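User:
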Amino acid sequence: MKFRQTILLSVFLFGINNLIACASEILPTHNEIVMSEGMKITAETEHGEITIIAGTRFYRSYTWEGGTRSVIMLPRKKRWLGSLGLYYPGQGNHWKEHDEITRGVLEEGYQNFSSIDEAYAWISKKVHWGAVYRDGGLLVNFHKSKGAGGTLHVGVWQVLINGEKPQNLAGSKNNKLITW
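Assistant: Predicted structure:
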């Protein structure tokens, strides 16, 4: 009888430890997340208009061309290409087809630069792929790769210079990037 109780206690403790480990994976405290729960961003880019809505925690919805698709973003465990935010790698065709799109490759995070010139160099690469940005450094890039297994590419970024939001960025299009 004592052996069975020891086994049950071990299984219980193993389960609790796994639950705690999973919770720490789900509840990061160090990630640089741009959108807060309930926040909405609409970006009008050369590739069309997209609206991103932040749901509870890491849930994000993307609406373009009259259709909406959603994912639960993953928190980055290590900084990758400057970001310690959220991502969704778009493995396989995870969405029902809409506008020839069946998957999303999605990112959200901060990009911190030590100079305005470094920031503009990074911004210019994003603009090349269909980004718009505001004076305060909020940037959304959006483009689609259509066809079989078409992909929606979206990045929601907060640009920082020496840890601070910029006040005035040349080339910004404040009226093309609306938040509420």
